[in-house]
C-alpha cells in the first residue's frame, strides 16, 4: 500500500491530486495533500477524501509530487523536507521548472537517498480534471518506470531524456504555444483592419494549413468572446518563454523567432498584467493595431 503526497493545490494541482486519491482508494493506499494555504488542503480533504497534512506529515510519503509556480518554490520545500524523507522516496516534480534547477535538485536530494524526476505536464485544467494530461519525464529510465504506475492524472507519459529534459521540452512546448498564439493574432488583426469578419476567417484557417490550437480553440473560445478565463497565467507563460531561451542559449542554438516572441510575451505580461490569462497577451497586439479581435 503506497502513500503518495501532493504539494501545491493550484489550478492544476487540485484536480491532479484528486486522481491520486481515487487511485489510492482503489488500491488501499493513502494520499496526503499540502498547500501553502492550509485551508485549501483541508477543502481538498473534505471534497476528495485526501488527508491534509503539515510539511512534517509529508515525510510519511513513498512518492511525493510537487506542482508549484517555479523551481524556486521547489527549492524551499527541498530544504525543508529533504532531511526528513526516508531513503528511497521518489520525488516527482510537475512544476514547469528550469532544467538547470532539476539537475541541481536531483543531486541535492540524492545526498539524502531520495530520487528526483522532472515531470511537467501539458493539457491545461481541463486535462487535469479529466486525467488526460501529457507528462514529459526527465531522469533515469528505471526511476521513470517506478513513477509510471502512480501517474493517475496522465493520459500520455513520455520519457524525453535525462534529468532536466522534461523541463526543457515543457518550456519549448509553451514557447511554441506563444508563437502560434501571437502569429495567429497578428494575422487576424491585419484581416480585421481589412474589414474581414474574423469568425469566418477562422472557419477557413481551421480547415486549412494555417490552423493551430490557438486558432481552433484559444482564440475562438477566449479572445473573440472577450472572456479570457484565467486557466494559465500570462506571467507563467512569460516565465516559460524565458526558460526556453535559456535552453536555446545552453544549446548554442539559433532561434530568432523564439527570442522575438518571448520579448513580446514579456512585454504583454507587463502591460496587460501577469495574472491575466495567457491569451490576454493579444490585448497588447490589439493596442498595437488599434484593432479589437472579436
UniProtKB/TrEMBL annotation:
Enzyme nomenclature, EC number: 1.1.-.-
Active-site feature positions: 170
Positions in coiled-coil regions: none
Family annotation (InterPro entries): 3-OH-isobutyrate_DH-rel_CS, 6-PGluconate_DH-like_C_sf, 6PGD_dom2, 6PGDH_NADP-bd, HIBADH-like_NADP-bd, HIBADH-related, NAD(P)-bd_dom_sf
Gene Ontology MF terms in the entry: NAD binding; NADP binding; oxidoreductase activity
Domain 3-hydroxyisobutyrate dehydrogenase-like NAD-binding: from-to ranges: 164-285
Keyword annotations of the record: NAD, Oxidoreductase
GO biological process: organic acid catabolic process
Keyword Oxidoreductase in record: yes
One of the Pfam families matching this protein, by short name: NAD_binding_11
Residue ranges of every copy of the 6-phosphogluconate dehydrogenase NADP-binding domain listed in the record: 5-158
Family affiliation: Belongs to the HIBADH-related family.
Official protein name in the record: NAD(P)-dependent oxidoreductase
